[in-house]
Each structure stands twice: as C-alpha cells, then as structure tokens.
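Researcher: Go.
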Amino acid sequence: MSAWPRTLFQRNMLLIAVLIVVAQLASAVLFRELVMKPRVRQSAQSAAQHIEALQAGLAALPREQRQAFLDRMNARARVPLASDADAARASRRDRPQRLAPLEQAYIEQITRSISKDGAQVQWRREPGHPLAVQITLDGDHYWMTLPGLVSSQGVPRTWVIGSVITVLLAIWGAWLIQRRLNRPLARVIEAARALGRGERAPALPEDGPSEIATVAKGFNEMAASLAGHERERALMLAGLSHDLRTPLTKMRLATEMLQGQGDPALLASVERSIDGMEHLLQQFMDFTRASHDAGAAQEPLLQVDVNDLVRETVAMCVLDEAGARAMGLDLGEVPQLQLPVHAMRRVLLNLLVNAQRHGRPPIDVVTRVVQQRLFIEVMDRGPGIAASELEQVKRPFAQGNQARSHLQPGAGLGLAIVERIAQAHQARLELLPREGGGLLARLDWPLHEARPPAQS
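Model: Structure:
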C-alpha cells in the first residue's frame, strides 16, 4: 500500500504543512544569518576588548593583588573559579557536550582577537559561567569568566516553542479552509454515485465561489439531460410495447380459430413465436418500470414472509407437473422482514424465468440470512456463463455466451432488470459459476427486520 495520500484533501493538507514547515525553516535561517551572526560578531569583539583591558589591568597590579582582583571580578559574575584544578574539573564535566555552531563561531572570533602568548579560551557548561579565559602573566595562570555574552543554546527555546505553535495554528487554519472547500466536492461525489446507481441525483446548490458554482451548474444540467433521455426512452419503449400488443393479440386469436383446420406444426410454431414476442414485450415493460422506479420514490416497505413470497413466485413459473419436479426449494429460517414486495417479486420472477429459458433443470432456489443480510440464490444446470462475461450480461440488451443464449434467445433485459432494481434498493446481484456446472445467481439484499405489532 502506497504511503502517498490518495484523497485531494489529504494531499492539499500535506502540501500546506510542508510549505509551512519550509517557511519556518527559511525564517530560522534568515534570522540566524541576518540577526544572530552579526550579534555574535559584535559580542565577540566586545568580549575580546574586555579581556584585553582586564589583562592590561592585571599586568599593572602587583603579583600578590592579581588573584584577589580576579576573585572580585568572578564574584560579580557569580563564578567561583580561581584555580587550574577547578578549571580542569569543569572542562572534564563539559567535555561530552558539543558546542552549538554559533557558540563555536563566538569562541573562534574571540580567540583570533586575543591570540597572544598565554591566552586560552575555554567554554564552561555550568550555569553562570559560560566562558572562561586563561591568562598567563609572569608564569602564573589566571582564569577570568565572561558570563552572559552569548546564549548557551544555538536556537532560543522561546523561538522553538513559538514556531511550533505557529505551525500548528497554520495547519489547523488550513484544515478548516480545505474542509470548507471539500464540502461542495463531497456533494458532487455523492450525487455522482447516486446517478451511477440509477437514482435521481439531488440538485446541487449553485451558490458559493464561481468555480464551485460552475461545476454544480454543469452537473445539474448533465443530470437533467440524462433524466430527460431516460424519460424519452421509457416513453418510447412503453409506446412500442403497447402498439405491438394489439396485433399480437389478433394473431393469437387467429391461431386459436385455426385450430383443427391448419397444419398443427405450423400453428404450434406461430404460437411459440407469439409467446416469445409477448415475453420480449413484457421485458421491455419491466425494464422501463425498473428504470423509472430507480429514479423515483422508493416503494414502501411491507412486512412479508420471504419464504412464502418465494413459493408464490415459483408457483407462477410452474405450468405443469414436470415443471414442478424441476424446481427445488431449500428455504432457510428467515424471519419476518420489511421488504418492497413488488420489487422483490419482479426480481425473483426474472431470475427464475432466466434460469428456465437459458438454463436446464433442476433449478434450485435457496434462502438464508447471514450477518443481517438476506441471500436468495437461483441455480440452474445449464451451460453457464464465461467468467469474462459475468458482469457484461448485467447490462441492458447484453447476451451471454452463445451456448446459453441458443437455448431460447431473448432481448437481454432480464438480468439488467434485476440489476436496476437491486441497485435502487442498495442490494447486489452476483453471478457465479455453479459447482458441477451451471449458473448461480445470488441476490444480496439489506435486511430490515419487521417490528412486532404494538400491544393495545
């Protein structure tokens, strides 16, 4: 899994955070180069002049008064260093610590300024005496300290704390701004997903910044155009189906009147053709209704026994005793559920008719509930569908492989109708190869358990 952020919000936040941190680092570098370094050079020159003055003053004093004079000077600085042993112990204690770059520059500049015989500069890490200078006069070593000339830290703690607080406040403000910008995008994404599921996408508000308003207006126009095309297609299919039913009815009546007078094989062939045409027209009507229901208000949920609904639908598909023997029911323990009864019945009917027309018996129907999901499976023993075509056959007017479609050709709308209805109710249709041959159509429906009636 890539560590790079995937969403626009995360990427923008990362970019803003990086820019803020870089800006703070650049400010620190400029502060160091333009403020701290000149101050360090000025402080080093002042310290060198002070050391030279003290050295001249010590040279003018008698030898027996020099140590007392340095003691008074060190006492004012609150530094009790007076001997080489103390200096050595302090040096050993401070040896593991490293000097900051500014401190190193400070010491080097002082050393260059007072680079005379017997003069040494040594850094002290104890509070109150950061700098100790050794002066040698007449063979005697004297230590003087110059506290407070430069900070013992390369970067002031106050500046670090302030920078951290500034960065956090800036990131928080950027998060609020980016979140506000992401809200319109989130609405567009949700509306696009609803449109992809075949639902009627809600109109997006066209206010706010001009860029966001332009996107919302373009999306609303696209959604309105798609809805208009869908209505025109539904009207055309409905009109076509209605206009064709009248001549089909006349043809069926004519074949019934010719029974016993014409060629029986020819009449049977005409009747099969009429049945096929009526089935195609019914599929057109069902597809039109499914498309309309997906974009319209949802069908109300009714309390229903799923197993009873399955038995009723199977009975609608069984025409004779042979058809009944070809149907197998494996109905699990399913509680009373809240379901859109008409939509569920149309889904089951299309799955069963698809198995009868394009598969082979036996046809098995299974119901079960697993983890708050209702599963209904319709399985046949036909030639099945190739794995590469399982998703394609869910599209309107798509046909499965030639071996399966050759059994009884259709319009390719049965599974498309089931897919439309399932998407409209947040359900899912899965097509899988059945073990031992055939096709398994699995309907995964969200479960709404019925509430018991209130006691009066």
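Model: The chain has three domains: 8-155, 197-296, 298-446.
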